[in-house]
């Protein structure tokens, strides 16, 4: 069972109706009005955030912000425990690669397109990323799902740079 989903379920069961209403309000800029209206519990909200790539196990910052705004220190401790456990589960090599990738993402800025082309990501995929995340440079830089699929299609030449990107 996915530990992050277990965490989200645990957080959801700890939320009151008033807290859910506050979370929905805080997520208005990230989630459309129609989807927010269909949210009936914390799991519904988390499912929408996961679907829109606003939240995932590697990037739980949004969850941390939301729980901090509710002043739910008990739920924040659960998130801390999850993160401590997740850091311990990743092999050292993977942690190093992730740290290196995060440094690149923090520093590449608007030049991410040049890096993507160097990694043999097609212009079509680059355009699709820009279209999907027009105002979110961070998501554009993460190239969600593009680099691994390109690396696999490159075959053995992928063993140089793209391997290990999240």
Automatic annotation (TrEMBL):
<dbReference type="Pfam" id="PF00531">
    <property type="entry name" value="Death"/>
</dbReference>
<dbReference type="GO" id="GO:0097191">
    <property type="term" value="P:extrinsic apoptotic signaling pathway"/>
</dbReference>
<dbReference type="GO" id="GO:0089720">
    <property type="term" value="F:caspase binding"/>
</dbReference>
<dbReference type="InterPro" id="IPR016729">
    <property type="entry name" value="FADD"/>
</dbReference>
<feature type="domain" description="Death">
    <location>
        <begin position="97"/>
        <end position="140"/>
    </location>
</feature>
<dbReference type="GO" id="GO:0005123">
    <property type="term" value="F:death receptor binding"/>
</dbReference>
<dbReference type="Pfam" id="PF01335">
    <property type="entry name" value="DED"/>
</dbReference>
<dbReference type="GO" id="GO:0042981">
    <property type="term" value="P:regulation of apoptotic process"/>
</dbReference>
<protein>
    <submittedName>
        <fullName>FAS-associated death domain protein isoform X2</fullName>
    </submittedName>
</protein>
<dbReference type="InterPro" id="IPR011029">
    <property type="entry name" value="DEATH-like_dom_sf"/>
</dbReference>
<dbReference type="InterPro" id="IPR000488">
    <property type="entry name" value="Death_dom"/>
</dbReference>
<dbReference type="InterPro" id="IPR001875">
    <property type="entry name" value="DED_dom"/>
</dbReference>
<dbReference type="GO" id="GO:0045089">
    <property type="term" value="P:positive regulation of innate immune response"/>
</dbReference>
<feature type="domain" description="DED">
    <location>
        <begin position="3"/>
        <end position="81"/>
    </location>
</feature>
<dbReference type="GO" id="GO:0031265">
    <property type="term" value="C:CD95 death-inducing signaling complex"/>
</dbReference>
